[in-house]
Design goal:
Elements lengths: L6 E3 L8 E3 L1 H4 L10 H14 L3 H4 L5 H16 L6 H30 L5 H10 L4 H17 L1 H8 L12 H48 L11 H10 L1 H17 L5 H11 L9 H11 L3 E2 L2 E3 L2 E3 L3 E2 L9 H32 L1
Antiparallel strand pairs: 1-2, 3-6, 4-5
Helix pairs in contact: 2-6, 2-14, 4-5, 4-9, 5-6, 5-9, 7-8, 7-9, 7-14, 8-9, 9-10, 9-11, 9-13, 9-14, 11-12, 11-13, 11-14, 12-13
Length: 355
């Protein structure tokens, strides 16, 4: 990257004044803006090393810390003896506390990184822990490898990424569940974090991870969380609205570049079926993935022994899926991740060109 050290002439200043390109592409003057190349670096770090187990055996992962804070607040404020209204208000207050703590922590860290040597590199390293591109790929690949070994191995692997009863799943159901998880969590774990990182800097990224963790822990429709977690679930719907739809389009574009994938069908399935999905946002990447692969995803599922109805995404697609289909989905996932990197690189040079 020798070009990083080149210089550009500032026409508005003295004819003898030059400004380092690095000051435009790598440096930020506010905690709420992160240069695209630093976001790209964070994604590359995650793609290369993910979340090293050796590191997080001794240091708690940021999401683990968020989870502990949520657990403390939930146990302290979510009392079954309270009225539904009080539980809802307590949930709003608890969610606000968690989001504010995360955003303030992100702001302080970003501000510190602006004033210390190699601070933006440190920021990229820290931010990479909040992107889950490699981790999701590894988990879904484990399902594929497990199914190639035995049905039991596949059930064990799928139990780590979905909440369904694995004993009720055959090879086809396990494969579909893995692909659905890949599509949905591509949005939650990669596209949305990078989107909010780009829009609001590290404070935005940290706030998003807090919201997403709140939703995963308390955003459930059951007796315990129906009211306490309602605000968290609705906020999560809101912050994922744009990223979920961007994810769908990324999958469609990736399908244009992958032999055997059907981009036209992905596009049609996304607009036809996504609004019918039981999830406000998950249908967009799931429908796009289903159409691209020519298989049917979603549909009725069993959670805790109870069948939960849902519409099929790409209902006309094949419902018999297997490890080969997971492999095809992982290829689309890798290409879509490459598209994000290319977009960040293009954005960096667009900023440089117009600055």
């Amino acid at each position: 990257m020798a070009w990083v050290n080149r210089f550009r002439i500032d026409a508005s200043a003295s004819p003898y004044h030059v400004e380092p390109m690095s000051s435009i592409l790598f440096i930020s003057n506010t905690a709420f803006f992160t240069p695209p190349l630093i976001i790209l670096l964070a994604m590359i770090i995650d793609a290369l090393v993910g979340d090293p187990k050796w590191l997080y055996r001794g240091v708690p992962h940021p999401v683990v810390l968020l989870g502990k804070l949520i657990s403390v607040l939930e146990s302290g404020f979510n009392k079954s003896i309270e009225s539904n209204r009080r539980r809802f208000i307590a949930g709003v207050q608890s969610s606000a506390i968690v989001i504010a703590v995360a955003a303030i922590a992100g702001y302080v860290i970003a501000a510190l990184c602006q004033i210390i040597p190699a601070g933006m590199i440190i920021l990229a390293l820290l931010a990479s822990s909040l992107i889950a591109w490699r981790g999701l790929y590894a988990h879904v690949r484990d399902v594929m490898v497990g199914l190639n070994t035995s049905l039991e191995e596949g059930r064990e692997a799928i139990s780590h990424i979905v909440g369904r009863d694995p004993e009720s799943l055959d090879e086809s159901a396990i494969s579909r569940a893995a692909i659905e998880s890949l599509a949905e969590n591509f949005s939650d774990g990669t596209v949305a974090p990078i989107f909010w990182f780009a829009v609001l800097g590290l404070p935005g990224l940290c706030a998003y991870k807090a919201i997403n963790t709140l939703d995963s822990m308390i955003g459930h429709r059951n007796g315990r969380y129906e009211y306490f977690g309602k605000a968290a679930a609705r906020i999560d719907d809101a912050v994922n609205y744009i990223p979920a739809r961007l994810t769908g389009f990324l999958i469609v574009i990736a399908a244009c570049l992958v032999r055997g994938a059907n981009a036209k069908n992905a596009f049609k399935a996304m607009f036809r079926d996504a609004p019918r999905h039981r999830s406000f946002n998950a249908g967009w990447p799931e429908a796009a993935m289903a159409g691209a692969l020519g298989i049917a995803l979603a549909g009725p599922r069993i959670y805790d022994g109870v069948e939960v109805p849902d519409h099929w995404m790409n209902e006309a697609g094949v419902r018999m899926a297997g490890p080969d289909d997971i492999s095809r989905a992982l290829l689309l996932y890798r290409v879509a991740g490459g598209l994000i990197m290319a977009l960040l690189l293009g954005l960096a040079f667009a900023i440089y060109s117009f600055s």
